[in-house]
Amino acid sequence: MVRVLVSAGSPAMESLNQTLRTLPFVEIVAATGSIRDAVDMASLDVLDAMIIDESLLSDSWGLQDRLAREPFPLILIVETPNAEATRRALAIHAIDAITHDTIGTLLPPLLKSFDKSSEAGTVIHHIIGVYSAKGGVGKTTLAVNLAWSLARVSERPTCLVDLDLQFGDIGPMVHDGPEITIRELVEGSPKRVEEDKLARALIAVDGLPLDLLLAPLNPQYADLVESHHIKEILSQLKSSHVYTVCDLSAALSDQNLSAMDMADVLMVVATPEIITLRNVARSLKVLQTLYPDPRKLRMVVNRSGTGVPAEKIKEIMPVAVSYWMPSGGVAPVRSANTGKPLVVVDPGNALAISVENIAKMLVEEFEGSSRKTVRKDVL
Ligand SMILES: Nc1ncnc2c1ncn2[C@@H]1O[C@H](COP(=O)(O)OP(=O)(O)OP(=O)(O)O)[C@@H](O)[C@H]1O
Ligand SMILES: [Mg+2]
């Protein structure tokens, strides 16, 4: 994401707004018609660039030195490319001067070159959503144990986000401390989720590079969390965490869909019961139209071997099953009652081993080579 502050008068502001709003990698931190305000705001925010309308500079002589010392690149928008415009660009140490009529063509590639996330060698970030059209199929069990396993296997910053906003139960399942939740982040319906607030809402798990972001404690607060909040939270987490696992609710709500849009992998969970399988198959057909990339949608059969046989499941499902998870017997329920994930309480349990193997396969897929051996016997 390229964080940009715009300081322009009319009509440059209109053209800039029109162009910048179409660029998905640009975040407009603020837009102002006053250079003084821009300079003051720049000292409060971490910016990747500032765009300045030349016409505002004529009344701001005293501020040109301050602009020249800013640590981020300045881009000057000029009316006519003459000697005066060049002199002003040099005075504020602008890295480029762009005329009004070339804003749409020259500005996007220039800003893209500041996008650190697209630099070669940058660590890639992955969002993994866990969804099902049916409740009670093991979404939370998979999301929690997968997040713990990814953090342990990859040794990379991982975040588990409870996006089952009405009835999220990750808090009671694995955390017994004071509850800070996603609600505190979006209270007052802010236009932007503040990064430092997000950092404060994350609950660090002892001994692992793992953070939790919990769902509101009361279902009535679920609607406070709007789709744009979810998009912002997930994109901010992308810059601080390599893996983000989202436990989603069973609804095809706007909030769920914004998380699904952002997910690189969407795990769709079913259990081997005919009604569940048929419902999940129907939802998969809808999801296939939204997300045609076959690498994104991954079917997971939980409690495999306990109901409808695998051959029949393959006939019903519109996509191939990517992961089969066995029954863990009574251990998953017991572990939830202790407030710790199964992979911690009973790592030798068949379900725990299976989820850990899924984590190892994902790390192998995303990071190239496996640092741990996958136990094929229990897949
Ligand atoms: N493979 C399994 N073996 C044994 N028990 C399991 C297994 N998977 C899940 N469970 C148990 O089934 C119950 C439901 O699981 P979970 O809460 O993970 O489902 P969910 O899809 O998140 O439900 P909800 O829709 O209510 O959020 C829990 O008690 C969990 O411990
Ligand atoms: Mg759940």
Topology:
Blueprint: E1 2-7, H1 12-20, E2 26-32, H2 35-42, E3 49-53, H3 54-57, H4 61-68, E4 74-78, H5 83-91, E5 96-99, H6 103-112, E6 126-131, H7 139-154, E7 158-163, H8 170-174, H9 182-186, H10 195-201, E8 203-205, E9 210-213, H11 227-240, E10 243-248, H12 254-262, E11 265-270, H13 274-290, E12 297-304, H14 310-316, E13 321-326, H15 331-338, H16 342-345, H17 350-367
Parallel strand pairs: 1-2, 1-3, 3-4, 4-5, 6-10, 6-11, 7-9, 7-10, 11-12, 12-13
Antiparallel strand pairs: 8-9
Bound molecules: adenosine-5'-triphosphate and magnesium ion (MG).
User: What is the percentage of strand-forming residues?
Assistant: 15-25%
Structural class category: alpha/beta
Number of helices: 17
Largest sheet: 8 strands, mixed
Percent range of helical residues:
40-55%
Low-confidence stretches: 369-379
CATH superfamily annotation of the largest domain: P-loop containing nucleotide triphosphate hydrolases
Shape type: elongated
Into how many domains do the coordinates divide? 2
What ligands can be seen in this structure?
adenosine-5'-triphosphate, magnesium ion
Q: What value does the Rg take, in angstroms? A: 25 Å
CATH topology of the largest domain: Rossmann fold
Number of strands: 13
CATH architecture of the largest domain: 3-Layer(aba) Sandwich
The largest sheet has its strands arranged as 8-9-7-10-6-11-12-13
Name the helix and strand elements from N-terminus to C-terminus, one letter apiece: EHEHEHHEHEHEHEHHHEEHEHEHEHEHHH
